[in-house]
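Write out the bound-state structure for ribose-5-phosphate.
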Amino acid sequence: MRIVSGSAHSILASEIATILRVPFAPSDIHVFPDGEKRVRIDEKIVGENVVVVQPTSPPVDANCMELFFLLDAVKRSGAASICAVVPYIGYQRQDHVFVSGEAVSLSVVIKILESAGIDRVVCFDLHSIKIPQLFTTTSLSHLSALPLFAELIKKNKWMEESVLVSPDMGGIRRVKQLSRQLGNMPYASIEKNRDLTTGAVSADILHGEVAKRALIVDDIISSGRTVETAAALLKEKGVERIYVFATHPVFSNETPYVLQNAPVEKVFVTNTIAVPKEKQFGKLEVLSIAPLIAEELLKPATSN
Ligand code: R5P
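---
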């Protein structure tokens, strides 16, 4: 096996290679003055099982194109099999038509990905349960960060006097799943409204009982407004301490500032996306998914 990394998250790629004790081959990526990229694999990979690691996080389009080029380069270099590890798949919140006339952008991305002739995709916590159906020719390993969160919650004994909270109705399934992993811990959910034009978030209805401590669980933190709004509502309802758990730290623009100033104690995310120094903040803690990916890569791919 060989691990090849794009430029989006080489630290994760090298962590996976270290765990698996396999060679790590950083790719040679040249950016031309007009912004185009030329991608080259600088290693002999004929007959190898090659794993390409590249989350398609912001800048989403640039990272998507780089991934497609890398997969093409690996294919042309004679790899025996190709697995794309895309821990965060960009465009996943555009998985269906919300307003008539729109493109289903995620479906386009998946079609291009599959056309690269890959055998397997490994990803984490997809936004909706319908997304796996969009993969038609590739074996999909859909992993979750919830077991990491469950372990942390158990270790800190945060199951007592606590409630799991989904910050929107779409996330209830996720919270129920975590509740089961924690011996049916109580959960609640918030009715969130987002203005599709401005992106403004509001929430004033909470379903379920609150407790002294609330653990907000979400898949993505992008602007941070969902977490900020949910935390404000929970405080209003009398919750004393709030902890946040989210798989994908998209962290666009001023998100670190929003989260650092939100009424929460800690924000736990995973490294499905690299969090550069300038986006780190005091309340942030990043958990590694590398061991989960390494374990998955040792298993045979399953057919969809
Ligand atoms: C929405 O359905 C997702 O599960 C997240 O709650 C949302 O993407 C978070 O976005 P933001 O941080 O911009 O509020």
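---
The domain at 146-288 is CATH 3.40.50.2020 (Rossmann fold).
The first strand starts at residue 2 and ends at 5.
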